[in-house]
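Sorry, explain these tokens?

___
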Amino acid sequence: MPIDPSVAIGATVSETTFSWTRPDVLLYHLALGAGADPVSDVELRYTTEQDLHVLPTFGVIAPNLRQTEPPKVSFPGVEIDLAKVLHGQQEITVHRPLPSEATATVHTRITDVFDKGKAAVIVQEATAVDTTGDPLYTTRSSIFARGEGGFGGSRGPSSSVEPPDRAPDFVLDTPSLPQQALLYRLCGDRNPLHSDPAFAAAAGFPRPILHGLCTYGMVCKAVTDGVLGGDVSQVAGFATRFAGVVFPGETLRSQVWQEDKRLLVTCSAGDRPVLADTVLTLC
């Protein structure tokens, strides 16, 4: 049986000590499309060492920056073919603005396994601390494994974030590059779904798709820039549910509603929703 919830839930996936440097942060930002306007003061804070700001979403990918092999979905109680897996949800809470260089230790565990009938959802939570033991950030993510449900487990909670019934306060268009996925894979995600046309076709897609976490980072950046003037220190967290795929070269349209200490966001590519239940939490 590829999934055994009695073994998986509560299991430690990994405990890893890792480091990042300014070039790592610069690469991540460039892979999200930063620097499109190379004389913009806001863009230069993402793309040069002078006054370097770090997008909070960098914390999600920081532990895997040095990965050069395709990921494996092999955890205690979980063995799944990579071609069946899609990213379901992603959330990060930053406990303080991320430094441009650091050494950290992250502890990752499986918190839940849900049975959606035709699919399974595996939820992981990770906490990163610095060398003094002070928390840097906490992430929570889920992966959606097609064809792996039906084991009799709980379906899990059903929650959604509905935007207000009025026009959005901001509409932000963010073009992606045709080579965006090839750039982003250098940040540690070498899943061939994003680079190999034959692998993408076998997974049911007409061509390689953009990494969900690339879309996640691009939208966080777009909202931070378009609403907060590029002030990353105002961002306490960013959460989303992946609602559809993006093909490199498409333009992302983010609609944003201001609501107290939250910015509610929907994102589409053409007429297809790609991010839903998206919330940027303000400090």
The chain has one domain: 5-282.
